[in-house]
């Protein structure tokens, strides 16, 4: 009797997470996060970071608008009477995720204002965010966000039509929203893992009043940034990305060589962005 084994589907998100383990660790286990967990983070350092995180939110909102504007939505709905999420086009699911993301970051910005005022961290009303010292990683992340929804010069449908034309679209034109989705998933995944790690380093302090920040991180921010709800939100985008890539690889049939060629082209589009993102996220935490 012979047994056959089916290879597990390729997961782009798992591949990226395994790509640069030391850089990922540096971005998610920073001394700033440890101080936040231990309650030893000075108010002025936390306030400085919150102002930068608010600038990150503004770049995030602009990038979400760019990606939404770039999406080609299906002209016809699937012939299903009551379609579930899995039956919808990837672009439709991405629209839903981005709209949810926009609502979430606006709630977070309002939380900054409310919690910052209550714990006397930073007066956002009286602070010009653009004049506050920027953490070194912010510019890197802003650059990635500026690229969301844009085509690389010389790539895309227009250059394909002006070149060889005809036949199948190049892989660079397939899943055109991939780089943008990976950017959003990447920055959210790092944020989730960073604050989940910080939560795991916390010592028992019921109210956090003895913490340097008065308990703002322990009672308000860390629970929000490491919640099951946030993890589910991040994982939904990861599943969407993996399913879209898996479908694209499967479109070439069972020819292993062709599948590897498609995979290689897809990795060539996103691995560099992932490495740049990790660089930016590592530099987003203030020096301690």
TrEMBL record:
A Pfam entry, by short name: TENA_THI-4
Domain Thiaminase-2/PQQC span(s) in chain numbering: 26-69
Membrane-spanning residues: none
InterPro entries in alphabetical order: Haem_Oase-like_multi-hlx, Polyketide-peptide_reg, Thiaminase-2/PQQC
UniProt xrefs under CDD domains: TenA_E_At3g16990-like
Name of protein: Thiaminase-2/PQQC domain-containing protein
């Amino acid at each position: 009797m012979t047994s056959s084994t089916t290879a597990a589907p390729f997961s782009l998100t798992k591949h990226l997470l395994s790509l640069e383990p030391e850089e990922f660790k540096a971005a998610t286990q920073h001394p700033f996060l440890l101080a936040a967990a231990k309650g030893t983070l000075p108010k002025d350092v936390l306030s400085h970071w919150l102002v930068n995180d608010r600038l990150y939110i503004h770049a995030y909102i602009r990038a979400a608008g760019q990606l939404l504007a770039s999406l080609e939505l299906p002209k016809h709905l699937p012939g299903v009477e009551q379609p579930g999420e899995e039956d919808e086009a990837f672009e439709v699911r991405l629209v839903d995720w981005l709209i949810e993301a926009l609502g979430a970051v606006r709630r977070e910005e309002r939380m900054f204002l409310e919690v910052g005022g209550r714990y006397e961290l930073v007066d956002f009303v009286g602070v010009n965010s653009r004049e506050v010292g920027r953490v070194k990683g912010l510019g890197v992340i802003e650059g990635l966000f500026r690229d969301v929804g844009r085509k690389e010069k010389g790539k895309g449908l227009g250059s394909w039509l002006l070149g060889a034309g005809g036949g199948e679209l190049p892989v660079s034109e397939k899943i055109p929203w991939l780089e943008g989705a990976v950017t959003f998933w990447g920055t959210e995944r790092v944020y989730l893992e960073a604050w989940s790690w910080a939560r795991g380093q916390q010592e028992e302090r019921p109210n956090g009043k003895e913490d340097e920040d008065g308990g703002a991180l322990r009672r308000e921010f860390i629970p929000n940034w490491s919640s099951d709800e946030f993890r589910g939100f991040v994982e939904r985008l990861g599943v969407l990305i993996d399913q879209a890539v898996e479908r694209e690889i499967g479109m070439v049939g069972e020819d292993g060589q062709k599948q590897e060629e498609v995979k290689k082209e897809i990795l060539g589009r996103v691995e560099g962005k992932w490495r740049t993102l990790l660089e930016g996220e590592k530099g987003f935490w203030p020096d301690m």
